[in-house]
Amino acid sequence: MLTVLILRPELETLTQALRRSGHREIGGVLMAEHTGQNHFTVREVSVQRRGTLASFVRGLTDALSSIRRFLTDTAHDYTRFNYLGEWHSHPSFEPFPSAQDDASMRQIVEDTRVGANFVVLLIIKLDEQGSLVGSVHTYLPSGEKLASELVIEGLPSQEARAASA
To answer: Which of 135, 134, 104 minimizes the C-alpha distance to 119?
Structure first.
C-alpha cells in the first residue's frame, strides 16, 4: 500500500479549485516526491476545469505541459520527483473511483509509452463543512487496483484515514 501525503499549499490549491467549480467535476495531474518506502508527498497539482456534472476529461496537452515543467524544475531527478498520477473531483457523488475511472487509469498504467510501474488516482470532494475528503487508489500494470492511504497535512491521523476509507 502506498501513502500519499498532501501538504497545505496543495490542499489550498485543491480546495480553492473545488469551491470555484461548484457541482462540475474538475481534475488534473499529481506530481510528487518519493519521500520514503511506499511514501509520496504531493509537491504540485495541476488544475483543469473541463468537467460536467458527472464527468471529467483531462486535456493531454495541458497535463504534459505541467509534468514537463515540474520535471524541469526538479532537475529531472526522476527517482525522487516524478508524475504520480491523476486526480479529479466527484462533487455530487462519493469520492471513490467509478468503472470509467478504473478503465482510464488502467489504460495509463498499461501504456508502455508511459512506462509507469504504477499510477495513483485521487478522488476528492468537499464535505458539508467545506473540508476536503477523498480516496486514493494505486493501479499496477498487472491490472491490480490497491486501496492506498491518503494523509492530509494538519488533520489528525484518524481523520485522514476516515477521509480515505
So the answer is: 104
Check: CB of residue 124 under 8 Å from CB of residue 18.
yes
How many helices and strands, by DSSP H and E, does the chain display? 4, 7
Find the CATH number of the domain harbouring 53. 3.40.140.10
71 vs 3, 31, 67, 74, 156, CA distance in Å?
A: 21, 9, 6, 5, 31
d(CA 113, CA 97): 24
Per-residue pLDDT tens over the stretch 25-72 = 999 999 999 999 999 999 999 887 665 455 555 556 676 777 788 678
Those residues whose C-beta lies under 8 Å from the C-beta of residue 116, and which sit 6 or more positions away, are 83, 108, 109, 141
Question: pTM value?
Answer: 0.85
Q: Would you state the cell numbers that stand for residue 140, as one nine-digit string?
A: 499496477
Supply the range of the domain harboring residue 36. 3-164
* Whole-angstrom distance, CA of residue 97 vs CA of residue 105: 10
- The CA distance from 27 to 159, in Å, is 23
Domain count, the chain: 1
